[in-house]
Amino acid sequence: MRTRPIVPSVAALSLGLAAVFVPPAAAAPPAPPAPLEDHVSGEAVMQHLEQFQAIADANGGNRAIETPGYEASAAYVEQVLTDAGYTPERQYFTFEDLNVDELSLTAAGVAVTEDVYPAEFAPDTPAGGVTGPLVQPVDALKHGCTAEDWAGVQATGGVALISRGTCAFGLKVQLAAEAGASAVIIYNNTVGAINPTLGAPSDDWVPAVGIPQAAGQAIVAALAGGPADATYVLQTSIVSHTTFNILAETSTGRADNVVMLGAHLDGVPEGPGINDNGSGSAAILETAVQLAEHGGPLDNQVRFAWWGAEEVGLVGSTHYVDDLVANDPTTLDQIATYLNFDMVGSPNYVIGVYDADESTYPAPVEVPPGSPETEDVFTDYFDSIGQAWVDSEFSGRSDYQAFIANGVPASGLFTGADDIKTDAEVALFGGTAGIWQDPNYHSVNDDIENIDPVALDINAKAIAHATASLAADTSAINGVVSPVDPELTGLTATARCTGKVATLSVVATNGEDRPLDVLFSTPFGTKTFNHVNPDKNVHQSFSARSGSLPAGSVTVRAWDDAGSQETYTVDYAALTC
């Protein structure tokens, strides 16, 4: 909302005096307020990150769920919000998670100790593990995607070694199991680790695990020397966890058309989690602070969320949405769009925008209407300032997943995790090709020293811009047009003499076709008028209780039942009676 300056009225002739009071020249109207992105900086966001780093340092080196580091991180966020005028709330939830009690893999004498990921929905091994001869499908690429690929292979009791590619992980495991394999090892067909999923629970699965390309190649090379065995051990248990989200929202703006921002607050146990995802948490925290100070009355309410338990399966955001679906679907329907910020300061960064319009990547999820228009808020901003950007796959791998699964439009920003940076991306953003966009992803080195301040500043300002833009207007996303700001006409503030006492007379007229509430605020008192009808005027005189008053201004605020507001300032001249 903007504050409208009103040209000051000329003071009336003082009663009983022959001399005419001539007021000083009117001051020039104040400059329009700076956009919100001018108030949000990467430097300020970095100050929040320094607090997260100090918290991790003081609490075992991490900020994972159910740790003192997470509790202290939450307390810091809550204190900053409270100081800014918000009323943050915790939303507690309990969930069950799979805890890995024992995990090891040795194949053909190669001990695989890093980036070993049990396949989702695959069963545990028996106690002591599965040991058997290594076997491979007969197709040239070792993908094992058809029954023919296993024809003639003596796989019974063996451990199948299969390359990623061509078909789904579940089909690979199914065919290997049908051929008689007791366990399956899937190695990546490109640089890096894989975290396979079999899609759904099934009694047909055998224990299966994903390993990086380099480990797979080492095993294949060892097999060239002759037959060899493999031993795979996986023992897990179900553990119950209780943690919480933090929610806060603005006190102004229509509550039936909410703009929501979210970032997960928890990190992994391996490190302090400063980029993943202290960066997103700190960026929306600073946006909230500056919105409270500089945003003025809003057309649309803005709600902020710091999610818990993202690192163990998007649990906090999923709980929030599922709870609304079950208990308060109207509130879910009132979310105009959701903006997600997960890693916005990667050291080998790209400026990525979730590709909601699928212009680069076909989305593996159904994209709700309004998501491409949400993406446009970011890309149009970057284009307007000449900032290069690229599409990031709209994959559902972060906290927007539950929202889009329930029809809420979404987009957001992402500077990269374990994707390999390309030469084309280096040409746009600098950095190093051929390595991860965040080489410290999910490691002890994800600390304050490895945040890129340029990426952080670019994204912090983009977050602020999108927040302010959508707080004013979401019509391109959901067709909801913000109410017209309430207009007052005939607004004057006049200094007069009543006998020897100076008074200030304030007048306004409702220029709308709907009732308005009107508040006069002066140095000499306030007055509220409820439900002023269209074309009706309101008037109040305020006594200075002395024979003179200095030059000053009156603040006049008007609002309607829908929550739309407008604030005016009216200057008046000094007067001596």
From TrEMBL:
Its EC number is 3.4.11.24. Residues 130-219 form the PA domain. Keywords: Aminopeptidase, Hydrolase, Protease, Signal. SUPFAM superfamilies: PA domain, Zn-dependent exopeptidases. It comes from the Bacteria. One of its GO terms (molecular function) is aminopeptidase activity. The keyword Cell wall biogenesis/degradation does not apply. Residues 245-466 form the Peptidase M28 domain. Pfam families: PA, Peptidase_M28. Residues 1-27 form the signal peptide. It is an enzyme of class 3 (hydrolase). This is Aminopeptidase S. It comes from Oerskovia enterophila.
